[in-house]
Amino acid sequence: MCGLAGVASGLRGAQRWFVEAHVFRIDTEGGIGRPTPEGAHRDGVDLVAVLMVERHQVKGGETRVFDARGT
Predict the structure, then answer these.
(1) 3-state SS class at 11
(2) In angstroms, rounded to a whole number, what is the distance separating the alpha carbons of residues 12 and 25?
(3) Most buried by CB count within 10 Å: which residue of 14, 37, 56, 57?
(4) Is residue 18 left, alpha or beta, with left meaning phi > 0 and alpha meaning psi from -120 to 50?
(5) Which residues make Cβ contacts (< 8 Å) with residue 49, sequence separation at least 6?
(6) DSSP letters along 42-67, please?
(7) Using one digit for the tens of pLDDT, what is the confidence trace for 1-59?
(8) Structural domain boundaries of the chain?
């Protein structure tokens, strides 16, 4: 997290950062897994980082990141 805080401070100036961490475990047994069924959203945050910590029996995957100003 300290490395990410350094990157964020480089973009927005040095400050104390509030970090929210969310764990996603997506089961695709019955087809395509959808971690955010409501679609693309921001949740009122300024910066987002997506990290993969561990993989187990991964067959494939896709991550989509959208520009806050449009598609």
Answers:
(1) helix
(2) 31
(3) 14
(4) beta
(5) 4
(6) -TT-S---------SS----------
(7) 688 889 999 999 999 988 888 777 777 777 777 666 666 776 777 788 888 788 887 77
(8) 1-71
